[in-house]
From TrEMBL:
<dbReference type="GO" id="GO:0016620">
    <property type="term" value="F:oxidoreductase activity, acting on the aldehyde or oxo group of donors, NAD or NADP as acceptor"/>
</dbReference>
<comment type="pathway">
    <text>Amine and polyamine biosynthesis; betaine biosynthesis via choline pathway; betaine from betaine aldehyde: step 1/1.</text>
</comment>
<dbReference type="InterPro" id="IPR029510">
    <property type="entry name" value="Ald_DH_CS_GLU"/>
</dbReference>
<dbReference type="InterPro" id="IPR016163">
    <property type="entry name" value="Ald_DH_C"/>
</dbReference>
<dbReference type="InterPro" id="IPR016161">
    <property type="entry name" value="Ald_DH/histidinol_DH"/>
</dbReference>
<dbReference type="InterPro" id="IPR016162">
    <property type="entry name" value="Ald_DH_N"/>
</dbReference>
<comment type="similarity">
    <text>Belongs to the aldehyde dehydrogenase family.</text>
</comment>
<dbReference type="Pfam" id="PF00171">
    <property type="entry name" value="Aldedh"/>
</dbReference>
<keyword id="KW-0520">NAD</keyword>
<protein>
    <submittedName>
        <fullName>Betaine-aldehyde dehydrogenase</fullName>
    </submittedName>
</protein>
<keyword id="KW-0560">Oxidoreductase</keyword>
<feature type="active site">
    <location>
        <position position="251"/>
    </location>
</feature>
<feature type="domain" description="Aldehyde dehydrogenase">
    <location>
        <begin position="13"/>
        <end position="477"/>
    </location>
</feature>
<dbReference type="InterPro" id="IPR015590">
    <property type="entry name" value="Aldehyde_DH_dom"/>
</dbReference>
<dbReference type="InterPro" id="IPR016160">
    <property type="entry name" value="Ald_DH_CS_CYS"/>
</dbReference>
Length: 505
């Protein structure tokens, strides 16, 4: 592959049709990471055609599911072998600390291993049709050609949550990663190719969403679009997909409450509140961006949170002392800056942060960990996703009030409750309208546990058995093994006329 032939279409590395390229810079210091091809509409159409042809040929879709599973297990092994290469590429594109990228690659490996094992386990089911004259079964089949669109914050992880189940189910795919973070997607295509995935089954297009992504939701030859990204983009994709009634899966943003009761383990709750809000500089869909704390401990809790937030060390991916890294781009930092300014203008109190990195850090897009208190429900900082290192503080007096505040969002991705009262923990978990609830923890996710959102956090689920089901069609095959004349219409032979039998419903 030459550095500017980085589209992967029909088993070949190719340059874009018009020779367009994009430079990728590390957000930590602005250094050039690489130059990649920028797909045109014609390139995306070529990728869709390749995926369609591969699917229709049955090169992968007709491979027995256990064999597809074995292939995914080999992908997991390949990821283990190439972990350092993948982690380094992820870190340079995102600016995140190398240890975080290494953890991501381990999680991606676990995802491929999980779907590799799941692939052949569920072929469908026999249905009791209520008569011995009928054999009836549900069988699972691939959806067809799937467009997979992923964001920049966990570039390969979010893509893997789509690639692994889509391939396990026998689909052909076109991956469109964020234009800001393409390098691990390139490495993934190379790995799939090296392991012998038939040509056309996995294709890669790179570039801006409006050109390289849009056809994946509008083109009639794409059967499904699976998207992870922002709410507004998700709405555009869902509307576009509606014209051809595609299957749509959406993993969108969150405005996630982290509810702390007075009886929580104080040190664990503080430590995890920092983690919830500031890991990866808050660029996490499930970030605990809304601290909802019982009024009786709010002052002590927030004072300590602020003290510790100010001690968080910012730094580049390979700085051993760094605890978190930069924002992804200058444009994103401007957005976070404006978001904090708007919150302050609306009456929030800035307790710490709200500034850019200085000195050596000025070369990157650093933003200091920010705590805003004295916020009111309805303020933009309480409603809108910051996707940066910003946490707001709200307080409550009762369980009911805690639940009301925690559910007061159009989103519904994730939330946490901290208490040592086991009954209360379960009561709150049951009442929170979010796709993941942590009790006395924050952020873990498991390949075997479904991930996704209530409300405007999305449609469908990734991971777990439902994450595979998203990429299946269910087909009902009904066989009458003792066919009879129904006598329903008048042309039926007179010998069989009489009271017509009603066709089975
Ligand atoms: N729910 C989850 O699991 C999850 C996980 C990670 C990130 N996210 C969300 O992702 C967002 C941040 O990511 P982002 O800034 O990359 O999001 P984004 O919506 O700007 O972009 C996501 C992807 O969509 C593409 N895109 C943009 N416009 C498009 C269009 N018209 N048609 C097709 N594709 C298009 C982009 O190029 C990119 O690849 C946050 O809101 C975050 O909460 C959600
Ligand atoms: C889904 N997760 C938590 C890995 C990343 C969200 O941005």
């Amino acid at each position: 592959m030459s550095t500017t032939s980085t589209l992967f279409i029909d088993g070949e590395w190719v340059a874009s049709a018009d020779g367009g390229t994009r430079d990728i810079h590390c957000p930590a210091d602005g250094e050039l990471v690489g130059t990649v091809s920028e797909a045109t509409t014609a390139d995306v159409e070529a990728a869709i055609a390749a995926a369609r042809a591969a699917f229709d040929r049955g090169d992968w879709s007709a491979v027995p599911a256990p064999e597809r599973g074995d292939f995914l297990l080999r992908v997991a092994a390949g990821l283990r072998d190439r972990k350092d290469q993948f982690a380094r590429a992820e870190t340079l594109d995102t600016g995140k600390r190398i240890i975080e990228s290494e953890i991501d690659i381990d999680d991606i490996t676990a995802c491929f291993a999980y779907f590799g094992k799941l692939a052949g386990q569920d072929a469908g089911r026999i249905v009791d049709a209520g008569t011995s004259d009928v054999v009836s079964r549900i069988q699972y089949e691939p959806v067809g050609v799937c467009g997979l669109i992923s964001p920049w914050n966990y570039p390969l992880l979010q893509a893997a949550w789509k690639i692994a189940p889509a391939l396990a189910a026998g689909n052909s795919i076109i991956l469109k990663p964020s234009e800001l973070t393409p390098h691990t997607a390139i490495l993934m295509m190379q790995l799939l190719h090296d392991l012998g995935l038939p040509r056309g089954v996995a294709n890669l297009v790179l570039g801006a969403g409006a050109v390289a992504g849009a056809p994946l939701s509008s083109h009639p030859d794409v059967d499904m679009v699976s998207f992870t990204g922002g709410l507004e983009t998700g709405k555009v994709i869902a509307a576009s997909a509606a014209a051809t009634v595609k299957k749509v899966a959406l993993e969108l943003g969150g405005k996630n409450p982290n509810v702390i009761f007075a009886d929580a383990d104080f040190d664990a709750a503080i430590d995890n509140a920092l983690n919830a809000a500031f890991v990866h500089s808050g660029q996490v869909c499930s970030a605990g961006a809304r601290l909802v704390v019982e009024a009786s401990i709010a002052e002590k809790f927030v004072d300590e949170l602020v003290r510790r937030a100010q001690l968080i060390r910012l730094g580049g991916p390979f700085d051993p002392d760094a605890e978190t890294g930069p924002l992804i781009s200058a444009a994103h930092r401007d957005k976070v800056t404006a978001y904090v300014a708007k919150g302050i203008a609306e009456g929030a109190r800035l307790r710490c942060g709200g500034t850019w990195g200085e000195g050596d850090l000025a070369k990157g897009f650093y933003f200091t960990p920010t705590v805003l208190d004295e916020v009111q429900r309805g303020m933009s900082v309480v409603i809108d996703e910051a996707f940066g290192p910003v946490v707001t503080v709200e307080t409550f007096e009762t369980e009911d009030e805690a639940v009301l505040i925690a559910n007061d969002t159009v989103y519904g991705l994730a939330g946490a409750v901290w208490t040592q009262d086991a009954g209360r923990a379960q009561r709150i978990a049951n009442r929170l309208r979010h796709g993941t609830i942590w009790i006395n923890d924050y952020h873990p996710y498991l390949p075997q546990a479904e991930w996704g959102g209530f409300g405007q956090s999305g449609v469908g689920r990734e991971l777990g058995p439902m994450g595979l089901a998203e990429y299946h069609e269910a087909k009902h095959v009904y066989q009458n093994i003792n066919p009879q004349v129904t006598g329903w219409f008048s042309g039926t032979d007179t010998a069989t006329k009489g009271t017509p039998s009603i066709p089975q419903q």
